[in-house]
UniProtKB/TrEMBL annotation:
Pfam families: BaxI_1. This is Bax inhibitor-1/YccA family protein. The chain crosses the membrane at residues 72-91, 97-114, 121-141, 147-167, 179-204, 216-237, 249-269. Residues 1-10 have a biased composition (Polar residues). Residues 1-35 are annotated as: Disordered. Keywords: Membrane, Transmembrane, Transmembrane helix. It comes from the Bacteria. InterPro entries: BaxI_1-like.
Length: 281
């Protein structure tokens, strides 16, 4: 999986991959503890009890303590609202704090990504840090390219909607080939970006975004990065869908919301940079 929030989780991972891993290790495949009824043994049940059970309404996912799409939507919406509020405040009061937000956000992002159980407090703290970072960096971009932030926000919403439509319609499916391509492409893009940063630090080449992210080459790489972020969103949707279908505990809605926030932040930054390159040229 591309997003470490989902790829490092036994909850959201592909059960087929876990089964292969257990088989390769020579261990028996245990049934999933989620989404199954408990066994009650061979205790006798009278006809009245059976009839009562039959006529009773089915338990909802809320009553059984399982994650639902509504849980994920509500928590993602709440985190996005917090992100926007903190970002707007940072933009108006202290945009220079973006560097602090970037460092704190990176540390908290890694901590949350590798935690086996979600921590709402740490996820909220990460969102606040990312709000400080995005608010500050957006103010800087806006001062150089008037109107670019609004364009980037609208483009992010459009790409998110398109990715969700393609996933829900079944036009794009997450297959093993899809996953392998995305992982290889993202590793290559990460290496390319690191090389660009090193060249900027040693003073090789020019351009505001580095020698490998300027001009026509920068536009091409930017489009590739937006495509990778879009594919990552589709994989996030697939992971959440598996989690809901497998009946994972409700607390993991926080993990799902955090994973979506991470991908959306990445997508927004790539679109902001791409639009700035186009405006600069």
């Amino acid at each position: 999986m591309s997003n470490p929030v989902f790829s490092n989780s036994d909850i959201f991972g592909d059960p087929r991959e876990r089964a292969k891993a257990r088989k390769g290790a020579g261990t028996a495949t245990a049934p999933s503890p989620y989404g199954q009824q408990a066994a009650y043994g061979n205790a006798p049940v009278d006809a009245a009890s059976l009839n009562q059970l039959y006529e009773a309404p089915a338990a909802t996912t809320v009553q059984t303590g399982r994650m639902t799409y509504d849980d994920v939507i509500m928590k993602t919406g709440g985190l996005l609202a917090l992100l926007v509020v903190v970002g707007a405040a940072t933009w108006m009061i202290a945009p220079g704090l973006f560097f602090v937000g970037a460092i704190v956000g990176l540390v908290l992002g890694l901590v949350n990504a590798f935690k086996k159980n979600p921590s709402p407090a740490l996820i909220v703290a990460y969102t606040v840090a990312e709000g400080v970072f995005l608010g500050g960096i957006s103010a800087i971009y806006e001062s150089r390219y008037d109107g670019v932030v609004g364009q980037a926000v609208l483009a992010t919403l459009a790409v998110f909607g398109a990715a969700l439509f393609l996933f829900r319609s079944g036009k794009v499916r997450v297959t093993p080939k899809f996953t392998r391509f995305l992982i290889v492409a993202m590793v290559g893009y990460l290496a390319y970006s690191l090389i660009n940063v090193v060249l900027m630090l040693v003073g090789v080449g020019g351009g505001e975004f580095g020698p490998l992210r300027s001009g026509a080459l920068g536009i091409g790489v930017g489009l590739l990065a937006v495509g990778l972020a879009s594919m990552s969103l589709i994989m996030d949707f697939d992971s959440i869908k598996r989690g809901v279908e497998q009946g994972v505990p409700a607390k993991f809605a926080w993990s799902a919301a955090f994973g979506l926030i991470v991908t959306l932040v990445w997508l927004y930054l790539e679109l902001l940079r791409l639009l700035s390159i186009l405006r600069g040229d």
